[in-house]
Write a structure and sequence with these properties.
Blueprint (H helix, E strand, L loop, with lengths): L1 H15 L6 H9 L3 H14 L1 H11 L8 H11 L10 H14 L3 H21 L5 H19 L3 H18 L6 H11 L7
Helix pairs in contact: 3-4, 4-6, 5-6, 5-7, 6-7, 7-8, 7-9, 8-9, 8-10, 9-10
Length: 196
């Protein structure tokens, strides 16, 4: 009787220990699927969320429009909604850039989104100020990241982005929170010249 109870206890413990599914587990199922089954799966995923649609459109450059537009719209929605009553969300705006990086990862697109993010912050600050230190910290981080992305571009493609970032940099002198100091440090770290 004790042996049966011990065995039942072990079985119940095994049943409660659920293994978390991993990519390897899923991949094992996907490898054996036929092309039509995979297409049906992608279609179902496509219909499941706007994020997945945006990812697939960006990854395969379909839709005939600017691939960056939905990502820019998300940044604007969460950083510069145009209505001071609407909430700001740095994390949701930055997630748009992360999502683009996962979908495409094109250095020029990342440079554009980084510069655009910084420009939208200052457009938002034209409407109202923010007393949230993390808002400014995030701006400084994004400024530095945008400069890194710009530096990865061919020399011939950098100029318009550097000019736009110079304008952002100058605006950084108009606010406190250590923004100017961080912008200066990032500019020097990138090895960019002073512009007149």
């Amino acid at each position: 009787m004790a042996a049966v109870q011990s065995r039942n206890y072990r079985l119940s413990k095994m049943a409660t220990k659920k293994k978390t599914a991993s990519w390897s587990d899923l991949k094992a199922h996907l490898v054996g699927m036929e092309k039509d089954q995979l297409l049906a799966l992608v279609k179902d995923l496509y219909g499941a969320s706007k994020e997945t649609q945006q990812f697939l459109h960006a990854r395969y450059a379909v839709g005939g429009s600017d691939v960056l537009e939905p990502y820019k719209a998300t940044i604007t929605q969460w950083i510069n909604p145009g209505d001071v009553r609407k909430p700001l969300s740095v994390s949701k705006a930055k997630k748009a850039i992360t999502d683009y990086k996962k979908a495409v990862g094109d250095p020029q697109g990342l440079a554009e989104l980084g510069v655009f993010y910084c420009e939208q912050v200052f457009a938002s600050l034209d409407l109202c100020t923010s007393e949230d230190e993390s808002f400014y910290d995030s701006l400084c981080v994004m400024f530095a990241q945008a400069l890194v992305h710009i530096q990865k571009l061919p020399q011939s493609d950098r100029s318009p982005y550097i000019e736009r970032m110079w304008q952002v940099r100058l605006k950084g002198n108009e606010i406190g929170w250590g923004v100017w100091d961080d912008f200066e440090q990032a500019w020097k770290t990138a090895g960019l010249p002073e512009m007149g």
